[in-house]
């Protein structure tokens, strides 16, 4: 592996422009002060209750995601290029899903193989020929991006179902402004606090035509035991809408109502943070107690908008990912603005052969995996792990893709030993309404806190940083 | 507002109030148990604490007959098997609060959440008296903070009113039970009402609702059973009296009804109970029997709780 690109310091020791003010400040501030502020930040997070649950870890039912107090900085120029690419990609995702559930031009053209759609466990036949409000499917997308040098960003993953993390983006900024007001005086940082206003505008724009002028929006949560519950309640609060659970809703004559102290009240847009499987026990998993019986029939009748739409998973697994550049070209007739990480599809014999021959250099991922689970990082794996994956790959090649181990960029991070470079990624959030696309500058930066580690997932010891986009002066 | 949200707010307030009440019961019990026998100190104080808290039967199932200082304190304050232990009250309150984060102000949430975090710091086994005292004052301060945070920061809308109704329904129930149990325990063998032994017992009732000083201001007399009962049942000045609780319940239920533009069975029952309290005189209550009066009140109070549930919370 080559030496990673550091976002603050060039190889010759000089400081990159975006970080000039920060580097100066870091030089002048004693480590005790940083340590004190870090503890203060942790105390505030814990008191506010910004926690998440880790499944299968009963000791730590509520944990804090570690927060790093050193911000990650992008210039306005970098962000401008990035956001154009994100918008392009999200447009293509929407067109692709619409096509998959209607005319299937892209399958007929032989660009994406049919079985990748039809045999995909998250393909929803219920959505075939189903009209959704405004022909939009992915209203809230989280596109994971990594950086490898001064010029190049790669898209690592598209999250088109129910991407989470935006509450951390917002709370991280709040905390930073509270703890380090002096930094915000020295840097012109684009605000992110308007995200929830933009989200509400997006959600309202998506209301079905049957809704009246001021549509009723709700956030649907699986409940307080869900790992992202804090985020659900945070968003409902900032949006000023009800946070409902399945049992708060019921369907009458294909219309969705919520149970209120004043009787039933009609609901037009449901920002659901519940997977397809659990939405409606009559349509999907019959054992789901989290959903709303009959919700799909109200949806099919066009009386309610679900964001994101049902069946978007068909666009965000890692096998489909490898076709994204072609998907963009097919629907938009444009070259992709953001690169894809080169990907070997183990479903294809020659790719599989290459992967099996180079397991010690590659990252192997499950097509439907997430959260950094079930993957092999070749250069860091021991013999036994590699042989285990060799067997898995041979047994079920279609379930895997492989990618080169990227030298993810690093950012200065305050860890036990002091300030040291750590690998980061970035999840910007792309909002697609019926009127326009909205992206607040920045996103959630995740950081692998262990030296050399590339795993940024919060469930595996990753932390987060505030992400700054500097306004051009 | 969502029915589930209203339900959560209502019970959240009830559990916070209940925790406060339990802390006061423990406080007073310990004080009484330390008195020399000649002044009314006796070994059955801890049993009487269980009766007051309304969990004597459950205690018996878990610990058998023997109610000692240690096991009663543990049972009322910390026991996971007692659904109304202070710890469980805080746990349930926080779970409810998490489910209705959006209906709480940040100050209310922080009070509950930091109390819940703080709770873990108290070791439950073999607390010294000093530790217990610290713990009880922490519980009382938490309920003061919660109440104050709600009062100072909540919008005056249905969320506020439902939580207030919950608090006063719980408080009325607690006051009635404190009065009933103590009266029951004390009166049979009180041959000389007004003697020194009796004095400390009745004073302890007042203390458990933090009304000893108020008593002197209102009556300017030494502590007497019928005056204590009058203060806790009929006196509208006394914020824990049944009358005061029902003035508040009736008022907040009326606010809800006006806001929604519709009256219902809970409003009617609250007004009926308030009127009955207003028409009662202490002499009559003692004549027909204090115990019977309180029994009847507790039943009506529970009935109000179910009316509120049926009308709004389902």
From TrEMBL, chain A:
Pfam families for this protein: CP_ATPgrasp_2 (PF14403)
Residue stretches making up the Circularly permuted ATP-grasp type domain: 71-448
SUPFAM superfamilies in the cross-refs: Glutathione synthetase ATP-binding domain-like
InterPro entries: ATP-dep_Glu-Cys_Ligase-2, CP_ATPgrasp_2, UCP005522
Top-level taxon of the source organism: Bacteria
Full protein name: Circularly permuted ATP-grasp superfamily protein
Lineage: Bacteria, Pseudomonadati, Pseudomonadota, Alphaproteobacteria, Hyphomicrobiales
UniProtKB/TrEMBL annotation, chain B:
Domain DUF403: 1-313
InterPro entries assigned to the protein according to its UniProt record, in alphabetical order: ATP-dep_Glu-Cys_Ligase-2 (IPR051680), DUF403 (IPR007296)
Matching Pfam families: Alpha-E (PF04168)
Origin: domain of life: Bacteria
Record-given protein name: Alpha-E superfamily protein
